[in-house]
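quick one
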Amino acid sequence: MEHSKQVKILSELIRQLDEKVNVDAGVILQNPTSVYTCSDLANKEWEDFFQNHPQLVGLSKDLPEPGSFLTIDDFGIPILATRDSEGRFRAFLNACRHRGVRVETELRGKRSRFACPFHKWTYDNCGSLIAIPQEDHFGAIDKSCRGLVELPTCEKYGLLWVHPQPGSDLDVEMLLGDLSSELENWKFERMNYVGETTIDMRLNWKLANDTFGETYHFHKLHKDTVGRIFYGDALSYESFQRNHRFVFPNRGIDRVREQPRDEWRVTHGAVVIYYLFPNVHVALGRGNINLFRIYPHPKNPGRSVTQISHYFSDKLLEAKNQEGDDVPKLSPENVYDMDARYGALPTVEAQNEVIMSTIAQEDYAMGASTQSAIENGLLDHVIFGRNEPALHHFHNTFRAALDMPRLQEYVG
Ligand code: FES
Ligand SMILES: [Fe+2]
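structure w/ FE2/S2 (inorganic) cluster:
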């Protein structure tokens, strides 16, 4: 993000905090609860947003070098992603061309040959079938016609995209729209994968998504967790076609405002979250990124899985390696202690503590509570306030993509 934009966003957040005002969408909207429970809608979403729409599956360093591979099993189409010997990102249906078994079952690693566990048909990381055991017993096969089914891919701005349908168009510029140059500036391709975690809970995938849609709840629901390190009720919000940028201040902004503006960096005083349609949030902290990918359950509208991957900058990794045990590090015990946070290095353990104690046990627990309370159909709709513009945008975007009318304004 350009420095002038960073200063503008931080100034706006400081203004909101000082004037005790929040972002204002201007209207309250009504959202029918059926969008979280209806099986027909869930089937449409699964088809249009997950089976027939490009999927962001990671950052470039999820495949750090030639020979790296990654398997993805989140949206009904098992994927084997590779970086081939020329460094090219490729993706294949993870299904053997003999009898359809997954040729790779590990989540990630380094391998240039994939031997199917069933009868050991073997493929290279370009998807070519290179060996069939007892070929004379099996019968004549033209190996050149039995390679893994290849899927369209694109690696751009440090993001890895796969289209789940062979031969489909994958136009990342179209997907990112006006956000592409800003994302390019962050240089996501430099970020190193350091760990991951999964949340599998009983809430619709859009309820999981909605937890990323406002800061109104920070000091209520999160008063003992992230409410201690973030300011709630303040938000810089901008939408970019189907995507958005959502920036909210942490207590670091108290120090930032004392510094000369030339030195201001948005991630020193705030968290920046990019929402990328339909199911991805890229959360940027100071030298670290958490990538959230939220998936519906294919058969149950009341369940979803969120995959969270953590990435650290080179600088952060170097600092951790060089300083040994002398440098303060965040831990699950001190991650919500503002004094301990200054100058401390993030760790995967501390990140995971936030994911579990704030997101799973607080945010998603609210979504699960909503889910179980609305499945009876008695609560017709819920409402999204003027201070919740991201919720307006998410839902109107989902609806527009499925040719549904926009949400109605609430008139009290
Ligand atoms: S199913 Fe893969 S080798 Fe037979
Ligand atoms: Fe939250």
